[in-house]
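Something for you to look into today, if you have time. Could you write out one complete protein record for me, on any chain you like? Leave the record below and I will have a look.
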Amino acid sequence: MSLPLPALSELAPGVNWVALLDHAAAVLEGGGVVAYPSETVWGLAALPGQAGGVQRLYEVKGRAAQKPVQVSCLNVGVAQQLVVPDPALECLAGFLPGPVTVVTPAVSSCPAALAPEGRVGVRVPDHPVALALLWRVGGLLATTSCNPSGQSPALSYGEALGMGLADLVLPDAGVAARGVPSTVVLLPERKVLREGAVPGAALLARLSGVPQ
């Protein structure tokens, strides 16, 4: 099996990425939780179609059941399969992959656990390890930041490992998290729910040319 992101082997040539990603996929398919690096902060992941895995994701983090997790996607095309078509989302595609999470109405086939009140938060990470993991498991992961609820997220492999929340912690291939969370924008209201790495004003400016 060849990786679609050969840069991983160049960034960390001493790692058997194929074997490691196979191991991560097996952990996830067994209902486990994997910690992984992203360009923002470290994350925790479970398979969306694995009910036990998503439940365990909530348990290890100590996250309230009413607080949704986001869905990390391999690319914009995968994200669009989960959401009701919206020109506003297509307009924001230029920021993806990148540190932007879009909360928008979900299609009826989206798992209810990922779309409370009919909305789902989708994101396309911009990190080679995160994208390789997504590629290996079919393009979708239920994700949240790597930290016990209410505490600061992990910003390094050592911190993620030390928290002891995951069944497996993937290395970062030398690409460090920047330590700033994603900006969260709500559609169709076009409201910034959380300021992050991309200025909310920049997202709203991009949307200003799209009719509501």
Q: What stands out?
A: The radius of gyration is 16 Å. The domain at 7-207 is CATH 3.90.870.10 (DHBP synthase).
